[in-house]
Amino acid sequence: MTTYFVAVITLNLVCFLFILLSGIQHKKHHYYSLAIVNLLLVGYHFLSWRFHQASTVSEAITLSRLHTNTVILGWPFIIYTFGHWCRFRYTNLMVLAFGTMAAIFTLFNTFSDTVLRHGNNPQLVKFDNLFGEPMSLLVGEPSMFFSLFHAGFIVMAVVLLLFALRFYQQQNNFISLALTICLGLSVATSFMSYQIDSGSVPLFYTGGLPFTLISLAFALMLSVSYRRNARELDHQRKRQGEFELALRRLATSAAGEDADHFYIELIATLYQLSPAEFIFIGDKCADSETKIETRAVLKHGQPVPNFTYQTEGTASQEVLDRGLHSEKHITAASFKCREANEAPAFASYTGIPIENSSREKAGLIMMFFSRPDGIDSALQQALQVVSSRAASELQRDQLEQKLRSMAYYDYLSNLPNRARLLEVLNATYLDATRHRQNALLVLLDLDHFGEINRKYGYEIGDQVIHILGNRFAAYRSADVFIARNGGDDFAILLTNLQADYTALLHVHWAALKAIVSDEITIGRRKISVQCSAGAVLFPEQIESRFDVISSAEHALQQAKERGRNQCSLFAPEMLAIKDAARELEEDLSSALQYNDELSMVYQPKVDAHGRLTGSEALLRWHHPVKGFISPAHFIPIAEETGLIHELGKWVLRRVFEQIRDWQQRSVPLYRVSINVTASQFAEGDFIHYLLAQRTEYNIPAQLIEVELTESSLLFDSHKAIEQLKTLQNTGISVALDDFGTGYSSLSYLRDLPLNVLKIDKSFIDNIDHQQSKELVRSIIAIGKHMKLLTVAEGTESKEQVEMLKEMGCDYFQGYYFSRPLTPEAFEAYVMR
C-alpha cells in the first residue's frame, strides 16, 4: 500500500510540474486546469494513505472529510479541462453546474454532523487488506448523500464520454482513446470505492488512479511533441541550407533549348522547398486576358498535363490583382480549373505574377497547400526568384511561339496545318502508348468539292474552306484537336477517350457532319456541302505511328466507296490488305521490268457451227513465290496505282509481237481482241500509241479488236465517240464488253461506233432462269436491230450453247469450246 501511494503521488507531482510548464509555454488554459487536477490528485492520494493509517475515529472522520473534498473539488476542473480541449459549446455551463454541485457537497461534507461518504455513526474498523497489510476504514450507516455522492461520478462519466466522442469526431484519436479508457477505469474504481465505503471489500482507495494514468499519458504525448519540435528545428536548419543552395541554383539556371523542362525544374525546386501539393506556372492566353494556359504543372510532386482555365473568381485573379499574395484559409471552390474536382480541398495558397519587359502581368506561379501553415517568408523569397527567372524565359518563349504559329497554322482556314498535325499526332501516339490509352484520328473530306471550284471559281472555294475552318475552330476543345490536312481535307484528333470509342465517334461524326452540311452563304450564293470521313483508333489498331494517317485515309476511301456522306472506321484487316496490295504493286512493277513472269494466253471465239472466228488475248501472271495470281486481283491494283498504263502498253507490244510471229511463219490469222481499261482509254495518248504500235509491227487493222467496258465510255461521251471513230476508220473493230452489267442506255448505245456486243457471263450462268433468259434474248435482239455482232461469254455447257443458238447469238466464247491457250497451244488449235 505504501509503495502504491508513494508511486502515484510522485507521478502526479511530475505530471503537475510538466503540464504546468507546458501550459505556460503554449498559453493553453486547459493545461492549467489539468495541472490543478494533478495537484488535487496528490492531495487525494496522500489523504487516502493517511486515512487508511488513522488510529482514532475522530482522526479518520477528519481525514475522510478532507479526502472527499479533494474528490468533489476535482469535478469542475476535470470538466473544464476536457470540455475546453474539445471545444464543446456548453463547457462553461457544465463547469458552472458541476461547480455549484461541488460547492453544495463540500459545504455539507465540511459542516454537517454526518460524514458524507460514511453516513451516520461511523465506526473505525481495523483489518488486514488483500495484501496482508493492516489498515483502517470507517464503516457507518449509509445516507441519501452517500448515494448522491457516488451518483455524481456517474453523471461526470457520461459527460466525459460525450467529450471522448467529440474528440473522435475531430480526429483526435489518441485523446479520445485515452479518455475512453480512463472512463472505463474510473467507473471500475468508483464501483470499487463504493464497495470499500460499504465495508464489502477490504482494499484501499484507488479512485484517483485513472486520472493519474491519463495525466501520465498526456505528459508523455507532450514529451513526444517536444522531441518532434526539436527534430523539426533541426530540419528547419537543414532546410535553410537546402533553401540557400536552391536559390543559388535558381539564380544561375538556364533554359537552354528545352523550355518545358526548364519550367518543370523551376516548380520542382519550389516543391522541394515546401509542402505544396499542387504547383503550376502559366501565362496568359493570347486570345483572352482572363485565361491562363499552364506551362508546367506538378501534383503531389508528379508532372501532370497542362490545361487552360478562366481566372475570374479564382485565387489566381487575386494574385494577378495584388501581386505576391497568400491566403491561409480557402476552399476548393476558390480554384476553378480543370483540376478542381480532382484536387483535395486546399487550406491555403500563395502565388506571384510574372511580369514581362513592359511590367505587364504576363503569367503567374501558384502553389496550393492542404495545411494552412505551409507558407513562410523563405518560400515567398523563393517565389520571387523563380518569378524573375521565369519572366525572361517566358518572354523568349512567347516570341518563339509566335514564330512557330506562323509556321504551323494555315492562313486560309485559321487552323493548324499538316506540319502541326504531324507534330501533335506523333506526340499523342507516344503519350497514348506510354499511358496505355487510345486516341481517334478522323480524316474528313468534302464530297465533290472540285465541282464547287469548277462551278463557282477557286475564290469561292477558298471562302468555303475559310468558313468551315472557323466553324471547326469553334468546335475545338482540350480533347478535340482539328487541323487542315490539305486541300479540302480536315483532320480531327480525339484524345482522352473515357467512354466507348464507337459511341464517341458516332457523336462527333454527327456533330462534324452537321457543321459541314449547314448551308454556306457567300454573297447571294447558297452552297451546300456534304462530307465523308474515315477514322482509326490508335495505337490499338496499328503498330506504327507512321501508319496512322494512311490507315485513316484507307478508311476514308472505304466510306467513299460505300456511297459517301458517311464515316467508316478502320478495321485491322484493312492494314493487311493494304500491305498485301503494296507488296503486290511492287512485285507487278518488278514483273514488268524483267518480262519473265507475265505472259499472254488466247481464248478462242467460235461461230454457231464451232468454227474458229477469233480469240481474246488474256494476261496471266505466274509469280515465282505466290504462284498464279488472278487478273481480277492485280488489275484493280494496277488501276489504283497507275501501273495499268505501262501494263497496257506491255500487253499491246506482246500481242503485236505474237501476231507478227504467226504472220511470218504463215500461221492462219484470226482477229485478236485486246481489253482496254477505263483509265487507259481516258488517257489522251493511248489511241495514238496503239495506232503507232500497229504501224511499227505492220499488223493489219482487221486482225485487231479493242474491247471496252461501258464505264470506259462514260467519262466524256463526245471524246469517246471521236476516239472510237478514229479506230474504226483505220479498220480496227470495237467491242462493248460486259454489256448489260453497267449503265446500259439505248440512247448513248445508238451514238457509239461499235461492231460487237459481248453478253456478260453472269447472264449466261443464269440463262435457265426466265428473267435472265429474257434479258439475253433482248440483248441479242438489240444487237440484231443495231446490226452488231453478239458474243456470249462464259459458255460452259451444250444446253447453254443450244439455247443461245436458238436465240440467234452469233459467236461463243467459253470452256465448252476451249480454255484460254498458250500461244503454242493456240497455234496447234488453229492448225487443227
TrEMBL record:
> Which PROSITE patterns does UniProt cross-reference here?
EAL, GGDEF
Residues forming the GGDEF domain are 437-572
**Could you tell me which CDD domains the record lists for this protein?**
EAL, GGDEF
Any keyword Transmembrane?
Answer: yes
The UniProt record lists the EAL domain at: 581-832
What are the protein's UniProt keywords?
Membrane, Transmembrane, Transmembrane helix
Q: Which InterPro entries match?
A: Cyclic-di-GMP_PDE-like, EAL_dom, EAL_sf, GGDEF_dom, Nucleotide_cyclase, Rev_trsase/Diguanyl_cyclase
Membrane-spanning residues: 6-24, 31-47, 67-86, 93-111, 144-165, 177-196, 202-222
Keyword S-adenosyl-L-methionine carried by entry: no
The UniProt entry, under NCBIfam families, shows: GGDEF (TIGR00254)
Under what name is this protein listed? Bifunctional diguanylate cyclase/phosphodiesterase
Lineage start: Bacteria, Pseudomonadati, Pseudomonadota, Gammaproteobacteria, Alteromonadales
